[in-house]
Structure formats: structure tokens, C-alpha cells
Specification:
Tet_transcr_reg_TetR-rel_C_sf; DNA-binding; Tetracycline Repressor, domain 2; disordered N terminus; 62% helix; 223 residues; HTH_TetR; single chain
Length: 223
């Protein structure tokens, strides 16, 4: 008889899992000491595997061989650890899609393709942190949630504006901009559920694929 899957992963269970291997450490503030950065990385792995509420401060600190009290030196609460992760992920995603080299692309089709590709690559490179950013929002306080929501609105506006520009000048078909831009965003976001760095597709390959798929959504067909 197959052994039933346990409801909760221990620190030992998470050690070395390839599905928890990503570039999340690159997201943390550079001014944060190494121990604080390592605590955020440990928390990402725990939150992504067990969820925010099922994760304890002992889980986060214990993975680094530290006592639970060590976490409070850098973060006054577990919720603030979650907030730092989600804020860093959302802010970096916004920076990626508003990078000068992308904003400088004048051709509306190539601009949209570049946006989708960059957004997709970001989520593939940081898929573990991005999973926490998307699925653990309910763990935030109301005030912190509102701050993240504002960043999300700004990010969404980048895609809506890019799509609307192509619709307005006739490059794209007259699609429903809010709905189609939401579908395009989902191309990048949804992969955090299944992506692994040891899989068959690199972040760049997925970016190129999704960029092409996005343009197919808005292509004008001969009348």
C-alpha cells in the first residue's frame, strides 16, 4: 500500500529539492545582512511548500541552524517576513517591465512581445518566490496588502497601456483590452505552479514562446 503523503514538509524534507531551486536570493535588499537575506530565502522555501500559516518561525530559522529568536533580530514578525518577500517580488517585476530598454521599443508589436517575454522570464527565474507572491497574499495585514495592490495595479497598467496603444493605432485587432491583458499576464504568472529549473525549457525559451502566443491573441485577420 502506498504511503499517504504527509500534510506538512519538514525542514529536512525541503533540503535539496530541485523544485525549490530558483534565483529568489537575488530579490532581497542589498543592504540587508547576509543572515537576514538567508532567512528570507529559507522563508520562501517554507511558505512555498507549506503555506504561510502552517510555517513556524522555528521552521524558517531552523533551516539555517538558528534559534527561532534569531528571526526577530531582523524581522519583528512572521508577517513582516512575508511582506518583505512579496514586496520585493512585486517591485522587481514592475522594474523588469518598465526597464529603459523595453520602454524604448517603438514598434507596438515588438514592445508587447518584449513585455511578455521579460515578465515570463522573471517568473521562471524566481518561480519559488513568485509562487509565494501570488498565493500567500491572504497572510498580509490589510495595510500591507493595500501597498502590494498598488504595485500590482501599476504593473497591470503597463500591459493594458501597451495593448491599448496597438488597438488604438490599428496594429492589433479591436480586442477587449482589460480581459486580454489579464490573459497575457497569466501566461507568465501561471508557470510558477509547475516550473522547475531542471526542466526542458529555459526562462528565455518560455519568454520567447509566451511573447509569440501573446501576439497571436491580438493579430488582425484579413476581412
Amino acid at each position: 500500500m502506498a504511503k499517504p503523503r504527509q500534510a506538512r514538509f519538514t525542514t529536512a524534507d525541503l533540503e535539496g529539492l530541485p523544485e525549490l531551486d530558483d534565483e529568489s536570493p537575488a530579490l532581497w535588499p542589498e543592504g540587508l545582512p547576509d543572515v537576514g537575506r538567508n532567512l528570507l530565502t529559507s522563508a520562501v522555501r517554507c511558505f512555498a511548500s507549506n503555506g504561510f500559516h502552517a510555517t513556524t518561525t522555528r521552521d524558517i530559522s531552523g533551516a539555517l541552524g538558528l534559534s527561532p529568536a534569531a528571526l526577530y533580530v531582523y524581522f519583528p514578525s512572521k508577517e513582516l517576513v512575508l511582506f518583505e518577500i512579496i514586496r520585493a517580488g512585486h517591485q522587481r517585476a514592475l522594474e523588469v517591465v518598465t526597464a529603459p530598454d523595453i520602454e524604448a521599443i517603438e514598434d507596438v508589436s515588438e514592445h508587447l512581445r518584449a513585455l511578455i517575454a521579460a515578465y515570463t522570464e522573471f517568473h521562471a527565474r524566481h518561480h519559488v518566490a513568485a509562487r509565494v507572491c501570488q498565493y500567500e497574499l491572504a497572510g498580509l495585514t490589510g495595510e500591507h496588502y493595500e501597498e502590494i495592490l498598488e504595485i500590482r495595479h501599476r504593473t497591470n497598467a503597463v500591459f493594458r497601456d501597451a495593448l491599448a496603444r496597438g488597438v488604438d493605432d490599428g496594429t492589433f485587432a479591436p480586442v477587449d483590452v482589460p480581459r486580454v491583458s489579464r490573459a497575457m499576464l497569466s501566461l507568465g504568472i501561471d508557470l510558477v505552479r509547475w516550473y522547475r529549473r531542471d526542466g526542458s525549457d529555459s526562462p528565455e525559451q518560455l519568454g520567447e514562446l509566451n511573447g509569440d502566443l501573446a501576439l497571436r491573441m491580438v493579430v488582425r485577420h484579413p476581412e
